[in-house]
Specification:
Layout lengths: L1 H5 L2 E9 L10 E8 L4 E7 L10 E6 L2 E5 L7 E4 L4 E4 L9 H11 L9 H14 L18 E5 L1
Parallel strand pairs: 4-8
Antiparallel strand pairs: 1-2, 2-3, 3-8, 4-5, 5-6, 6-7
Length: about 160
Amino acid sequence: MLDFMLGPVAAAQGCRENRGGLYSAEDTVAASFQFENGVIGSGFWSFAAAESARADTVEILGAKGYIRFSTFAFTPIVVDDGCTVNEYLPPNPPNIQLHLIAAIVAELRGLGRSPSNGETAARTSWVMDSIIGKRQRGADADNADVKGTHANIAI
């Protein structure tokens, strides 16, 4: 979603741990990233947090205000332009994936362009691997093995 809104990420890093011990995958991740256009951001995801501590919030902060929205929950989009605060709650479509699937099918048939494709998927995979320390860009990318939900983005 952030790639779609802000463009490709140029650099990403993070720390990860398995705090809950319920499975082998990391359940707590902290990340920092910078987009190609210079926008910087950070994120924190904990799938082991207590129910009372859970949050699903993305905030895009700018010189004139902010936009706040949820990734998974159906909550209002909040827009503060420095003068007024507005909340928008678009209707929840009956099939949330319908429009994306239709765009992908149209592109496969040569009838349109999908915002989600192999290139954007590869970029997202690279960002996630960079955050958890599996990959890095550049000359050392093939030999890298670096070890080691709320996001804020500043514009």
